[in-house]
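Below is how a single chain appears once it has passed through the pipeline. First comes the sequence as given, then the structure the pipeline wrote out for it. We keep one example in the README because the format questions we get most often are answered faster by looking than by reading.
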Amino acid sequence: MKKRNINNLKENEKKIEEYLIYKTVSVRHKPTLERYRLYLRIFLEKINKETKEIKEEDVIQVFNKMTKEYSVGTVNDVKILIKSFLWWRFDDVNKRFRNIDMICRGLRKERAYSPDQMLSKEDVEKLVKDEPETRWKAFFLLYFYGGFRPGEVCNLKWKDVLFDKDGAFVKIYVKKNGKSFEKYIPENVCYYLKKMQNNNSIYVFPTKRTNKHGVPVGDVPMTRSGVYQHLLPLAKRVLGKHV
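Resulting structure:
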């Protein structure tokens, strides 16, 4: 069984990379392609079959599971991606997946969040206390107390952080209007951030990424989806809730 799982993983990784090459014709944004890679891996790992063996009932079962584990927006994004992937992978989609349009129909979005899903100051303190990695401690503190958007913290560069004896000034660029603004972060929030100053990257929160050959692709920032994938199990373990 283990051998079969390893073979499935290798074959599926191959198909994922081939599909992403195909998608580069219309998608050039690297973070978007990284998000596609993550979603496809999650989807195929849950099915635990080679792509050529996927059946309609497999797709239904995985989406049913994902609706319990992920937000409506994420599930809808995955549905769009999987529908595209299946059309690319199979010449007989309409025969093999007769109900594909209905299965991949977007779910109706309810309220974006409920009050109990929001993080309180106490929640953040618990997350930081139980998180073993310094970079994640720094990320959560900066994100929460700075009131930044996820992408703003992910793409933050050291040149935009100016420390002083009492804290730090953080400059954020807003792509939407092409403007920038500064926020002052107090010392207690900067503690872990200061410990990361020698991370040998232009980014405050870099991540390790490799191409299909396992070769590092260079100095790149964390992605929003990567942050969420780390936060989700941590919050369930420490806080006992979905955030």
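The chain has a mean pLDDT of 87.

See the next section for the split statistics.
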